[in-house]
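Quick question, first post here. What does this chain look like in 3D?
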Amino acid sequence: MFWSGETLLERLPDLNNDFMQNAVDCNAWTLTIGDQIYITPTAKAAESGTHTIRNLSKGECFQIPPGQFAFLQTKECVNVPNNAMAFISIKASIKFRGLVNVSGFHVDPGFKGVLVFAVYNAGPTPIHLQQGQQCFLIWFASLDTDSSQHVKSSPSNRKVDGDTISRISGKLQSLDDFSDRMNNLEQTAKLHTIIGSIVLTVLVPTFIALLKYYIDALPKSDTIHSHQVPSHVSTVLTALPQPEPPKAIHADQTLSRSGQAHDTHGSHQVSTSTSTTLPSHPLSAQSNTIPVSQATSPSGQVSDAPGNKETSPSAVKQ
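> Answer (accepted):
Ran it through. Tokens below.
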């Protein structure tokens, strides 16, 4: 059976020296924040004082960041009789701000000493508290019998010590920290975008201007046209033997037995080893080809070189 407010006023002064009558709220005893606390550090915490146990002065304020744990010690010393047990919680006005009790919800029979609450800020904003502030509630309930064996036998004068905080010491990755990191990444990305835009705006026109200046400065002979023969093809063609062009013999030239053509009007000689076509010769009506073994005299007669025979044009016609 839970104790009523009247039972609290009757029994608690004998059990707890720190009990005050104005601390009764309905059927609960209101407890305040004591002198020692510990708050897990955030990624932005820079002061070394936030990484260890803090001893608060009277009325000193502190805050629990979002997503962080804290150990809060009560100012009052609680004494639970062997025939009763207690239940603890956080005041609703503070609980609604996001502070959650994660240390448990009961106090064993026979417990004596201050209470240490383990709390967690599940809210989106920091929770501001101060030393001596009414923060916790405790309810008492009677057991069916007085037990001297099944009670809290170990020392129960607890406090915030190194063994307690070592279990949760170090930086905790909270949602608030992740949100801050995302904001930092967004700011960094925006800064890089701005810098990249400025660089592109300045460098691209400068590069185009320099390229155009370089092209204009090139000699005209260095300009490459699409109809030019590639260098490797030109090299191959140059290495090939070039054929000699044929040498023409005019009609007013004669051929000697040695294969030389005699100019009838001059002394020029043209070497040949083949037969020659004389399109304007009078013999073109029958044959335009004169064998190399024959020669044409200046009088128009064809003579056979070996026999020195002369043939008149009329004889040739016959």
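The helical segments are 5-15, 92-95, 162-165, 175-217, 231-239, 313-317.
The CA atoms of residues 259 and 272 lie 5 Å apart.
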